[in-house]
Design a protein that fits this description.
The complex is a heterodimer of chains A (501) and B (144). Chain A has 501 residues and is α/β, with parallel strands linked by helices. Helices cover 48% and strands 21% of the residues of chain A. In chain A, the strands form 4 sheets. Chain A has a 5-stranded parallel beta sheet, with helices on both faces. In chain A, strands 7-6-10-9-8 form a 5-stranded antiparallel beta sheet, with helices on both faces. In chain A, strands 12-14-15-17-16 form a 5-stranded mixed beta sheet. Chain B is α/β, with parallel strands linked by helices. Chain B starts with 5 loop residues before the first strand and ends in a 6-residue tail after the last helix. The chains are: A alpha/beta (501), B alpha/beta (144).
Chain lengths: 501, 144
């Protein structure tokens, strides 16, 4: 459709003759004249009532305000396109007029042709502008309702546009942002990475996509996918909240990490079990074969000498008995170790005082021992498995008694060392044979012995069991000693959850 | 000719007795010294501690057990092979360990032979006899 057809034009002209003449010419050219005003006030009033498509505005008119002032007033209240008509073409007037962004400027006198061309061109531009505005409104509407956050920040760092999603994302109101600068809203922003990215985009006009962690005033944290685009006003920022995705990823990562830790723990357990199994088979091969070999050997020797005069058969038979006893003990201890490493660990409050009393009686019943000077302090309640802790004390106290055998005045001390981290360190000290600290690394090894069978009998399994049990309670064990001046074993256990007696 | 001494390093008195019984049965007259673990073995070889006043000189053969209290046989072997004064002494590992890693480590450290103590005493005696025959009778050692 021809935008100029039936266009409605208003004339503001204080000279009636000129105004009338203009009306006639316009009518002839096919426009409808909606009215004629002689003053600015009259013009504004008529325009408000008739809403013309275009105003032909003389600059010098009746009343308090001239045509240019009338036009600028119009722009603020009821924007209608204006063409100035004037006989005055001096620069200062032109400058003032230009500031009101008119659609044309006709210098009097002008021909009908000139009038026609100017009006038509203006109407054409008005139509194009209207279309532009409509399309702008459409885009703006689209931005307004987008799920993604949208904002435009101008070259002065002011918020020019923000949509609802963006406000939701940054937990601010529109009034807090629009017209204010980024620095007003976020005082520390100039030190941030995102600010330098924005500045770079402002300068170089190059788009940039990245992810950003954002911490809110209340300490909450969100993650955003940000796309920064240069736009004529400054920069446009498109933001997508990816917090839930990030959290899910983080949970997945943590889960994987935990899984890896669990796999590593299991692998360690398996490795330990394998090592124990290896040591077990090693001993079956070594330690269990030895007594068998001795029995076999002494049996042969006993048979060989049975015909000779000085037959040592009874001595050999005694050795065979000893070897078979030793073999029985080895098998028992191996089974005890196997039980210790496989037994289900109960977690209950254990009264160590009662454990020690029971163990002392048990150990003294089946040991030939000198008088022992017991120095036992009150022990705390610990969290653990009563039966397994009983075994720990049986082995440690049993060792203390065994290695004090040759002492005239044997002293065994059992003392707790309180700690403030929920654990207790217990020491079992004797003044017996002790050992050389150079061999301490072997002390807790399976089937390792630091003494000769002829001095102190044993299978080399007891302390391996003790370490196994203490470690299964989460504790640690160590020993200190000097040959001939006794040994002390320190081990840690968790205090009872109930808080003790 | 100098007397060829034999050093048995073994923590089991029973094993030592069985070994010496076997030697006696086959009429070996070589003097036998006994160390009950690695510490005593090294004391013997360096003529110190308990063995400070022994007759000086290296044994013609060391029968060395592996698993012993305090210092084990492989550690003794390592020390012997690292000492120029000792490294020519023949060392036969005589042990109940059939473990591949013990055998490999024994040879790596320079053992002259590795013999697993047989459980059967007949076989044990045969092994001791053969070892004695070879290392104490057939084998020649440098004169110093």
């Amino acid at each position: 459709m021809n935008p100029t057809a039936n266009a409605r034009v208003m004339v503001v002209e204080n000279e009636r003759i000129v105004a009338f003449n203009l009306q006639q010419r316009l009518t002839r050219l096919g426009y409808r004249v909606t009215g004629i005003a002689a003053s600015g006030a009259d013009a504004l009033n008529q325009i408000r009532l008739t809403s013309p498509d275009l105003v032909l505005m003389d600059i010098r008119i009746d009343g308090d305000i001239d045509g240019i002032e009338t036009a600028s007033h119009l722009a603020k209240t009821n924007p209608v396109p204006v063409i100035y008509l004037t006989a005055h073409a001096e620069q200062s007037t032109l400058d003032r007029a230009r500031a009101t962004r008119p659609y044309g400027y006709l210098i009097k006198p002008f021909s009908e042709m000139e009038l026609h061309a100017t009006v038509q061109m203006a109407l054409e531009r008005i139509a194009v502008d209207a279309e532009l505005r409509a399309s702008e409104a459409r885009f703006r509407q689209a931005l307004d309702v987008m799920m993604e956050g949208c904002q435009i920040i101008d070259f002065d760092w002011r918020y020019r546009y923000v949509n609802d999603s963006m406000l939701q994302q940054c937990r601010r109101s529109r009034d807090e942002l629009l017209g204010r600068t980024l620095m007003d809203v976020y005082p520390e922003v100039e030190t941030t990475e995102i600010f330098s990215v924005l500045r770079h985009c402002m300068k170089t006009r190059v788009a940039h996509d990245f992810q950003q962690r954002f911490e809110f005033r209340d300490g909450g944290v969100s993650w955003f996918d940000l796309s920064i685009q240069p736009v004529p006003e400054g920069v446009f920022i498109l933001s997508i909240d990816i917090t839930s995705e990030k959290l899910a990823n983080e949970r997945l990562r943590q889960f994987n990490e935990q899984l890896e830790i669990r796999v590593a723990e299991r692998t360690t357990l398996l490795d330990t079990a394998n090592k124990e199994l290896e040591a077990f088979s090693y001993t079956v091969a070594h330690d269990l074969r030895a007594p068998l070999r001795h029995i076999n050997g002494f049996a042969q020797l006993a048979m060989d000498c049975s015909l000779s005069a000085n037959c040592k058969a009874p001595e050999y038979i005694a050795k065979m008995v000893k070897s078979s006893t030793k073999m029985g003990r080895l098998i028992d201890d191996l089974l005890a170790l196997s039980r210790a490493s496989r037994a289900e660990l109960k977690s209950e409050a254990v009264d160590l005082d009662m454990v020690v009393v029971a163990v002392r009686e048990e150990c003294l019943n089946d040991a030939d021992h000198p008088e022992i000077d017991w120095r036992v302090d009150h022990l705390p309640e610990v969290q653990g498995d009563a039966a397994l802790l009983h075994q720990v004390f049986v082995n440690l106290i049993g060792n203390a008694i065994k290695f004090s055998r040759y002492r005239d005045h044997a002293v065994i001390e059992i003392r707790p060392q309180p700690r403030d981290d929920g654990w207790v360190e217990i020491s079992v000290r004797d003044n017996g044979a002790g050992f050389d600290m150079r061999h301490a690394d072997k002390l807790f090894g399976v089937f390792q012995r630091l003494h000769h069978e002829s001095e102190f009998e044993g299978t080399g399994i007891g302390l391996a069991i003790v370490r196994n049990l203490v470690e299964r309670h989460g504790g640690k064990i160590k020993a200190e000693s000097e040959p001939d001046s006794g040994a002390v074993f320190y081990f840690t256990l968790p205090l009872a959850v109930s808080g003790g007696k | 000719m100098k007397v060829k001494r034999l050093l048995i390093v073994d923590d089991s008195a029973d094993d030592v007795e069985l070994t010496t019984s076997a030697l006696k049965k086959f009429h070996f007259v070589n003097p036998v010294d006994v160390a009950r673990d690695g510490v005593e073995a090294l004391d013997y070889l360096y003529c110190r501690g308990h063995f400070a006043s022994r007759e000086p000189g290296n044994p013609a053969l060391i029968l060395l057990d592996i698993k012993m209290p305090r210092v084990g046989g492989l550690a003794v072997l390592k020390q012997v092979r690292n000492d120029p004064k000792l490294n020519m002494v023949p060392v036969v590992m005589l042990t109940s360990s059939r473990e591949e890693r013990d055998i490999v480590e024994g040879y790596e450290l320079g053992a002259n032979a590795y013999v697993v103590k047989p459980v059967d005493f007949e076989q044990f005696m045969t092994a001791v006899r053969d070892l004695g025959m070879f290392w104490l009778a057939v084998n020649e050692l440098p004169s110093n």
